[in-house]
Amino acid sequence: MAWLYLVVAGLFETVWATTLKLSHGFQKLDYSLYTLIGMGFSFWLLAKAIKTLPLSLAYPIWTGIGALGTIIIGVILFGDRLSLVTWLFVGLLLISIVGIKITVH
């Protein structure tokens, strides 16, 4: 169950990062509230996950899921353009997250 908490926490990190951008520096109340709610869920689920998962494993996976999610959202919703080299490093980030997960004892 801890792994599920961790993955959903990472997805909520993507949610709050996206709504943070949409809040325009906390100028739009609705998106500002969504940001705070997303942060709350993300941190709460991370806290539940690290009750049983090692912090040294859970935290980088949590931030990695959030980073990958926000990259995808940035490209799809906001039209961010990434160079081929940047995509290479995005792929390495994904490989790193998977590598951390599969090498845990």
UniProtKB/TrEMBL annotation:
Entry keyword Cell wall biogenesis/degradation: no
InterPro entries, per the entry: EmrE-like, Small_drug/metabolite_transptr, Small_multidrug_res
Tagged with keyword Cell membrane: yes
Membrane topology reported for the UniProt record: Multi-pass membrane protein
Gene3D superfamilies: 1.10.3730.20
Location in or out of the cell: Cell membrane
TM regions (residue ranges): 33-50, 57-78, 84-104
Keyword line: Cell membrane, Membrane, Transmembrane, Transmembrane helix, Transport
Main location (coarse class): membrane
Family label: Belongs to the drug/metabolite transporter (DMT) superfamily. Small multidrug resistance (SMR) (TC 2.A.7.1) family.
Matches recorded under PANTHER family: GUANIDINIUM EXPORTER, SMR FAMILY PROTON-DEPENDENT DRUG EFFLUX TRANSPORTER SUGE
Official protein name in the record: DMT family transporter
Organism: Loigolactobacillus jiayinensis
